[in-house]
């Protein structure tokens, strides 16, 4: 994969903090790597990106990212191969989605070459932070946000593009229980469900809190119009595995404009096709999920996302009823597709779809 060289200024830390850390056992988002990339957009153009020591910004209280949430982000991962090689997983997809998100919030787009070149340089410089083996990853968080010093509601004129990273082992360490919420919605037609503004996430917190009060880990989201069709699960896309005679097939909600087109979702669908597992992208009503469970045909449910990779869902709570799913040990599709995905992302299986960008 090639990207136009894009000049970058580099200011390194005197000494890395990575030495001696057990990187794969660091909890998600708790220790941040040595460097970050920062580029500023002003007067209609992007300035030279700088890779500098990770640290705080001094920003005034009136910036419109803080006042109006004019901020979008991405998530992707870097992994180590068996010989210590470094791989980014499908970074072009994230560059493209970041720009779709930016366009939706009237933010300037980041040139793909600047995104990819800056990202690769940052990962190369901080590669000591990538956990070895397939037990952990370096999570990469690019974002673009407005630093306009204005309380007027208007498109951003000055913004920052930043990328910072952190090592982690897993996002969910155990199978998740989910509460189907009928009170809150994540997205609606004409809204921002298919992109990643920061503002998609804060309104979900109250729903998550209520799920947790009901003994669940997170929520299963239904559509915003009829409150009938399953859309996502917490911060993940969702998949159901159903028994169909002697075979098992998979259903995931179709991309309707309110569902995030997850890179992991797309990768899982491609791998299921490689595994000759029939996967349907279509609307699935929560009533159908209940009926399938009653008929003993709901064999698995799992969520996918960059941070979570693939998380098994153990129990779905809907209108006071618990749909308890078979134990993870009895599942065949979710564990197998997860294993394939991790094997490809860490260079342990052939990259037949050209997903890896070797640094
Ligand atoms: C990801 O899975 O990378 C996401 O962007 C979700 C995030 C809120 C943890």
Unreliable residue runs: none
Under CATH, the topology of the largest domain is which? Answer: D-amino Acid Aminotransferase, Chain A, domain 2
Number of helices: 7
The helix content is 10-25%
Return the string of H and E elements. EEEEHEEEHHEEEHEEEEHEHEEEHE
Number of domains: 2
Query: Rounded to an integer, what's the Rg over CA atoms?
Result: 21 Å
CATH architecture label name of the largest domain: Alpha-Beta Barrel
Strand content: 25-35%
The top level CATH class name of the largest domain: Alpha Beta
What is the number of E strands? 19
| Biggest sheet descriptor | 10 strands, mixed
Rounded mean pLDDT is 95
Could you say which small molecules are bound to this protein?
A: 2-OXO-4-methylpentanoic acid
CATH superfamily of the largest domain: D-amino Acid Aminotransferase, subunit A, domain 2
SSE class? alpha+beta
Which shape, going by the Cα principal axes?
globular
Distance between the termini: 10 Å
């Amino acid at each position: 994969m090639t990207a136009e060289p894009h000049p970058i200024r580099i200011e390194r830390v005197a000494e890395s903090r990575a030495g001696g850390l057990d990187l794969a056992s660091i909890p998600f988002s708790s220790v941040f790597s040595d460097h970050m990339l920062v580029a500023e957009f002003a007067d209609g153009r992007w300035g030279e990106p700088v890779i500098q020591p990770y640290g705080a910004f001094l920003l005034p209280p009136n910036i419109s990212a803080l006042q109006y949430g004019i901020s979008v982000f991405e998530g992707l991962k870097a992994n180590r191969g068996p010989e210590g090689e470094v791989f980014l997983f499908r970074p072009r997809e994230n560059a493209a989605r970041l720009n779709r998100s930016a366009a939706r919030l009237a933010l300037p787009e980041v040139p793909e070459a600047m995104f990819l070149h800056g990202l690769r340089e940052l990962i190369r410089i901080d590669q000591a932070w990538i956990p070895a083996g397939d037990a952990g990853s370096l999570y990469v968080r690019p974002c673009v946000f407005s630093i306009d010093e204005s309380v007027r509601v208007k498109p951003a004129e000055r913004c920052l593009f930043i990328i910072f990273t952190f090592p982690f082992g897993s996002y969910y360490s155990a199978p998740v229980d989910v509460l189907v919420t009928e009170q809150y919605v994540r997205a609606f037609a004409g809204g921002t469900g298919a992109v990643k503004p920061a503002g998609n996430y804060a309104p979900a917190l109250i729903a998550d809190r209520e799920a947790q009060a009901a003994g669940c880990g997170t929520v299963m989201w239904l559509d915003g119009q009829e409150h009938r069709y399953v859309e996502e699960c917490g911060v993940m896309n969702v998949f159901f595995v159903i028994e169909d005679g002697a075979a098992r097939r998979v259903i995931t909600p179709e991309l309707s404009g309110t569902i995030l087109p997850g890179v992991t979702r797309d990768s899982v669908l491609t791998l299921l096709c490689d595994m000759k597992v029939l996967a349907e992208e279509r609307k699935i009503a929560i009533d159908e999920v209940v009926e399938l469970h009653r008929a003993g045909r709901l064999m698995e449910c799992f969520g996918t996302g960059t941070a979570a990779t693939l998380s098994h869902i153990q129990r779905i709570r809907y209108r006071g009823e618990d749909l308890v799913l078979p134990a993870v040990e009895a599942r065949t599709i979710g564990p197998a597709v997860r294993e394939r995905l991790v094997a490809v992302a860490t260079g342990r299986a052939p990259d037949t779809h050209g997903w890896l960008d070797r640094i």
